[in-house]
Amino acid sequence: MKVEQIYTGCLAEAAYYIESNGEAVIIDPLRETDPYIERAEADGARIKYVLETHFHADFVSGHLDLANKTGATIVFGPTAKPNFEAHIATDGEELKVGNVIVKVLHTPGHTMESSTFLLFDEEGKEHAIFTGDTLFLGDVGRPDLAVKTDLSREDLAGHLFDSLRNKIMPLSDEVIVYPGHGAGSACGKKMSSETWGYLGDQKKTNYALQPMTREEFVKEVTDGLVAPPQYFPKNAVMNKMGYDSIDDILAKGLNPLSVRAFKAAWAEEEALVIDTRHQDDFANGFIPGSIFIGIDDNFAMWVGALITDLQIPILVVADEGRQKEVVTRLARVGYDNPIGYLEGGFEAWTAAGEEVDAVEEVTAADLADRFDKEGMNVLDVRKASEYNAQHIVGAQNFPLDFINSNMSEVSRDKRYFLHCAGGYRSMITASILKSRGYNDVVNIKGGYKALVETNLPMTEFEEQITEL
User: 46-104, pLDDT tens digit by residue?
Assistant: First the structure.
């Protein structure tokens, strides 16, 4: 028996590969199928099942393409109603995979169809649970991401309380917990940076597994919840209803365009241009009107949080050799309409003599020197929880997460100095503001991490409360 975790850091997402005696199972795969198919081929194994713990909200799963390419059976837990052929397992149903057994445990709460898969080894011993978003290390799944339900988040939290206590906690302490996500995911609020652990340790340390009443549990898991990223319900619908093949998305998006063709497509398709280079490169020069979302950070999450139309035509500016990575990561969160990339990248644009723009930047030390000498409008674009923990006295909180709904808080007549924690989010903010005609913006290099080292007046530090 082989059990492997396939972890994708930019989404803080874990898929799993189980193999026994020539048969394999994939749990919660990402959109691209090649890694799973190649892994099974390396073992000479046939993928028998694609197991889905629930209708995911934070990414588009690869279950349909993987099943179509391998002949595997898609399996959901009880109550799931997908718009495609799948096996809807009963609670307690056992699936044979080579010489091992996978048992389906219906664990509603995160969503009503949520299920945990319990793996028994060749000797019939409980080996591991694949919990999806039911149980994380240090946390549990938020109870407000169901595709469509008449139940409130408090109702779902109550179901989660029962699932954990009746299905998960009675299992042996030696059982390995393989969760669907780790720290950084918006599906929980106190997740550990570890990506697997033992159930016995979770019983001791996970706040949600401690002795408490149902009412106390409901309050704990719903406290601090804010609206999820806008793409979450849209991805959940795609996972339930179906979607286009990743191969078709790649074929369309990996379309090299000359500068002339790029400009024509931009105008004709009313496309959005996303520049995925490093923020320092973007600051030094970019195509006017383009938006910066760098590929080397939480690219997919920020695309999903900020771009409200999943079907908007997208044109890509990328470093050479990274175009496929960009299109793939767009597709992971449901942005299925990339129409091409700038051949030769930004260098081709400048070589053609086209207009360029840049983002003015200052160091934290420069800002500190000038801070008392002139009135400054400082926009702190971190989350409210980060801002509330500590910020520059007089700075305005303008969270990037909610920029689309908060534009009335800024004026085109003012000069703004922007910062986040390190520089990535503030550069995204600067690019969005400039694309919307707010041209007098200045990025503070190094962000809060650099600002806190200066003599700028700061509020008293308060312990940060996790915000979802």
Answer: 999 999 999 999 999 999 999 999 999 999 999 999 999 999 999 999 999 999 999 99
Q: Quick check: 302 and 363 in contact, CB under 8 A?
A: no
Across residues 438-463, what is the average pLDDT? 93
- Picking from 286, 354, 296, 356, the residue whose alpha carbon sits closest to that of residue 317 is 286
- Look up residue 93 and give its two tokens: 């149903």
What percent helix, strand, coil does the chain show, rounded to 5?
35, 25, 45
Model confidence pLDDT, tens digit, residues 316-365 = 999 999 999 999 999 999 999 999 999 999 999 999 999 999 999 999 99
- How far from chain centre, in Å, is Cα 129? 23
Structure-token pair, residue 339 = 């129409």
**What is the dihedral sign for C-alpha 106, 199, 6, 58?**
positive
Give buried/exposed letters for 161-187 (b at 16+ CB in 10 A, else e): bebbeebbeebeeebebbbbbbbbbbb
In this predicted model, which residue has the larger pLDDT, 144 or 122? 122
Strand partners, 217: none
Contacts of residue 81, Cβ cutoff 8 Å, sequence gap at least 6: 88, 113, 240
In this prediction, residue 468 carries a pLDDT of: 46
Residue pair 325/312 in contact by the 8 Å Cβ criterion: no
d(C-alpha 110, C-alpha 144), whole Å: 7
Cα distance between residue 171 and residue 122, in whole Å: 18
Q: Are 429 and 421 in contact (CB under 8 A)?
A: no
Alpha-carbon gap, residue 421 to 360, rounded angstroms: 18
Confirm if 176 and 128 have CB atoms less than 8 A apart. yes
| Sign of the alpha-carbon torsion through 77, 81, 85, 90 | positive
